[in-house]
Amino acid sequence: MEYEELRKREARVMCQTYGRYPLAVKSAKGTTLIDFDGNKYLDLLAGIAVCNLGHSHPAIVDVMRTQAEKLVHVSNLFYQEEQIALAEKLLPLTGMDRVFFCNSGAEANEGAIKMARRYMQEVRGREAYEIITLERSFHGRTLATLTATGQDKIKRGFGPLPPGFTTVPFEDLAALNKAITPRTAAVMVEVIQGEGGIRPLSHAYLQQVRELCDSKDILLIVDEIQSGMGRTGHFWAHQASGITPDIFTAAKALANGLPMGAVFCSQEVAQAFGPGSHGTTFGGGAFVSAVATRVLEVMEQEGLVERSRELGAWMLGECLALKEALPHKIVDVRGRGLMIGIELAFPGQAVWNQLLQAGFVLNLTQERVLRLLPPLVVTREALQRFVDGLQAVLGASHGGA
Length: 401
Ligand SMILES: *Cc1c(COP(=O)(O)O)cnc(C)c1O
Description:
CATH class of the largest domain: Alpha Beta
CATH superfamily of the largest domain: Type I PLP-dependent aspartate aminotransferase-like (Major domain)
CATH architecture of the largest domain: 3-Layer(aba) Sandwich
Mean pLDDT: 97
Distance between the termini: 29 Å
Bound molecules: pyridoxal-5'-phosphate
Strand content: 15-25%
């Protein structure tokens, strides 16, 4: 069996950083993953909110072919038309004035933290550097971003951690207010905590955080790495709350599977990043930028943000109905658009295994939360099949399993 063979080869050569799924994907098309035995799976994870257009979308395959023959990489020492065109297309969707392109989510958040600190210290002349984040947040795996992350398991064994980070409880405005000091540079939040179990911040809380940041004269950084790019039925999740961040970050779905990150900011904050202040060899190169531009075009043509909103609202309703039917198995259903978490009353590994065997690929986070992040091109029929599959698995399970 190819899978067994691959599993053994992997164990001999790779750092064992991942608890991998018992599945090796040979190829993928649309919303279908195909393993080495030819088994097909419905992809409800999209490579962790990355492949919004599904796999091997013809327009993306086409731009990759064309761009590969035209220009792939020259570095940021040069003007690149593809990069500028992408920024021109993206910025009007963000309400921001400037963008810095990089290669991953962690790198985008690292850039946002550097930007906030440098803005305070160089532009405002204030010795402010502290970043306040929320418990159970996830902001990345670099030293600064894992320190910003509000989960101890991510930090263990990596000390000493860089100073200047504080974590406060989720949706507790008084605690946040108390944590702000004259050294505070910014508050950083995910609009909907992803890795933390699909936990949306309420519109009221986000608006109050915005007001608090204004009154304390500090910056608001929003991490849209998982929640952005139409995932929640808005282009950016924070837009649903009617707030404007000073800095926000994106990554996962930007280039539908190619590594890319972005830091967006206001004109005011962009003063922090003058020549030589920050940089990256690969970020926003011609190849990935051309692909990301095509992603935006396809999203527009196929109306994927609206699709995410409508299909997501329907799906949330279906999941809530399932919770009503199985109240002792499902304790909560949360989310917006096609970013949905189904919290089980018990650790979900057995349920997850059965769903995989039934042909459904999704993620289990925080032990109990089934996390759905399907490609935005997923069909209602496919989602219905999953709801029926989950009902069958949960109906037959004895809880606590
Ligand atoms: C995935 C993720 C990150 C980290 O992105 P990487 O590309 O894995 O470095 C940061 N923040 C959030 C909210 C994420 O979902």
